[in-house]
Amino acid sequence: MCGIVGYIGTKNSLPILIEGLKRLEYRGYDSAGVAIINSKECKVIKTKGKVSELEKLVSAHPVESHLGIGHTRWATHGEPNTINAHPHFNKEKTLFLIHNGIIENYLSLKKGLLKEGYEFISETDTEVLTHLIDHYLKLKNSLFQAVRYALNEVEGTYGIAVIYKNEPDKIVVAKKGSPLVIGLGENENFVASDVNALITHTKQVIYLEDGEIAEIHKDSYTTKTISDETIIKEIFHVDVGIDDITKGGYPHFMLKEIMDQPESIYNSMRGRLVYDEGISKLGGLQGFEDRIINSKRIIISACGTSWHAALVGEYMIEQYAGIPVEVEYASEMRYRNPIISKEDTVIFISQSGETADTLAAMKEAKKKGALCLGICNVVGSSIARESDAGVYIHAGPEIGVASTKAFTSQIVVLVLITLMLARKRNLSLPDGQDIIKHMQKLNEKVAEILKQNEYIKDIAEKYADSKNFLYLGRGYHFPVALEGALKLKEISYIHAEGYPAAEMKHGPIALIDNNMPVVFIATKDSVYEKVVSNIQEVRARKGRILAIVNEGDTQIESMVDHVIKIPKSHNILNPILSVIPLQLIAYHIAVKKGLNVDQPRNLAKSVTVE
Ligand code: M6R
Fold first, then answer.
1. How many CB atoms sit inside 10 A of residue 262's CB?
2. Residues of the chain falling short of pLDDT 70
3. How many CA atoms lie within 13 A of 237 on its CB side?
């Protein structure tokens, strides 16, 4: 969470910082600020609210400077207000710091600093770090060394950028647990918490790793470890274009990303299917196939939407590859000392590749000797870099806080992994080819569902005033029910719960009356008749029913209030199709309620704090 951007070069920094912050706003958007230094002055401008508010203030006080840092915040310590907004600064307003992460021992550090006479004006952990650096600046007389010494005292996570009036030729940055990337330009360099902020300026980047610190000048940089050893970093070329990170004519990123799915789904499987052999080829897992296939157990760990994709993965890997699978919330796995052995493979799924809990769970699994694989969207992200091997989903940048196209692409990649494992175990060639044939038609089927957008909007609007929703599905559609409920609650603030349809009678059925909309995912699969019975149970209690059914299904149509029809497919691909109407329902309800779809309250796109 929190967006960080910094500039040093020959251009005016403020427009670059504001543009960068707008691209990073999806990471956090409760307050924002910039600090600049020029030969005459140091200036810090901060405000509660969005980057657009900051932009107004900045335009009212234009100032030329070639060195600056900017921040958009997702509050952890202290409410979202102007004082708690970053950058934080020392008493003399000569040292400025922006920070993403949490300084866990900030209270004990603060105690020491208070004794030395430091005063604090904010409630943040970041201000403590600023004063700690100030303390070392007075002792070491070097910004780089002051930052290094201060960080050696810090427990917790950080991605930071620091500037100092007396050393106006540099930005010092450091990383532990929160992403930090350096962008290399001609006579100018950049820093950011993710590459989206940089790609209009440069495609050449360096990813800092945990425990690394860098001093960046306009035409050079040095990278070291926190214990002061020089390191040489690899320079990467990022392949993200401006079209990938703009709305492309849609009113919201979320809608654009839903509509992107025929292409993103295709991109996730492109070049990875070998029809003649009925298999998938995943370059990122090359050399690891046998170890995965011979695993005693596969654990899939993730958070949020990615965790729902993991559940779909469990069903398919167990059904087709016959390997026991467990799915675990990363936030639970990291602290509960799970039994993981060298014979296990642990797959970590993360769109951003930066989710703090998932990253920490991966480190834990690595310590226990398991093979750790990453399924990530963001190329070069921490989980992608730190896993033993992995597969990119290639869905393209996902900016809307509600994850949509990443979910469907994660499932595509899980199908590819299942195919690879199952064919080496007991899936026959014709069965493998059958899955591939269905995969090759997926993007057309997705496009067919998306054509019903206006029809789905009409239905969604009829339910927009509801206070609660139930989403029910069985088998592969149980995780889809969870995902549909999550989509609705996170962007429309309507309480929604996902349940396996058969569990309803063990409690939730008590909620059913004519005010309770129930969304059933009821495609023609092995549990179809059972779901029909569950629909009858809700109908008997006068619940309002919206059902996602297959084209040609007339049985359910006659029993429910509304239906949305989707094409038939292979059972392991059905979740990819059935989730799309649920994404659109959530989207249209949130729009109807006049809510900020792309930046729902209290949330951030990548959750880099625990
Ligand atoms: O980047 P990740 O996939 O690791 O993110 C995990 C969750 O934070 C994320 O899926 C979250 O639940 C989304 N807001 C759901 O739409």
1. 19
2. 1
3. 1
Q: Is 467 designated active site? A: no
Biggest CA-to-CA distance, the chain: 79
DSSP-derived secondary structure letter, 355:
-
Find tokens 């000569």 and name the residue: 94
Q: Is the CB of 402 under 6 A from ligand 1?
A: yes
Query: Among 201, 160, 198, which Cα is nearest to 177's?
Result: 160
Query: What is the per-residue pLDDT for 242?
Result: 78
CATH code assigned at 54: 3.60.20.10
What is the SS3 assignment for 7? strand
Smallest CA-to-CA distance from 401 within 5, 126, 30, 76 is with 30
Domains in the chain, number:
2
Q: Pick from 243, 270, 300: which residue ends a domain?
A: 243
Nearest CA to ligand 1 atom 7: 304
User: What contacts 243, CB < 8 A, 6 or more positions away?
Assistant: none
Contact 231, 225 (CB under 8 A): yes
Q: 78 Cβ partners below 8 Å, 6+ apart? A: 84, 122, 123, 124
Tokens (6 digits) for 232: 């040489």
Contact between 426 and 273 under an 8 Å Cβ cutoff? The reply is no
* Amino acid identity for residue 259 in this structure: M
Check: CB of residue 178 under 8 Å from CB of residue 209.
no
Long-range contacts from 532-537, C-beta under 8 angstroms, 24+ separation: 532/556, 532/559, 534/472, 534/474, 534/501, 534/502, 534/504, 535/559, 535/560, 537/504, 537/505, 537/509
- DSSP single-letter state for residue 504: G
**Active site includes 303?**
no
Considering only CA atoms, which residue is closest to atom 12 of ligand 1? Answer: 304
Residue ending a domain, among 227, 243, 259, is 243
Q: pTM for the whole thing?
A: 0.82
Assess if residue 29 is contained within a domain.
yes
The CA 322 to ligand 1 mean position distance, Å, reads: 28
**Is there a domain that residue 129 lies in?**
yes
Residue 578 sits in a domain whose CATH number is: 3.40.50.10490
Residue 75 lies in a domain: yes
Q: What is the pLDDT of residue 607?
A: 77
- Structural domain of 233: 3-243
Cβ within 8 Å of residue 16, ≥6 positions away: 5, 7, 68, 190, 201
Residue nearest to atom 11 of ligand 1 (CA): 304
Q: Does residue 367 belong to any structural domain of this protein?
A: no
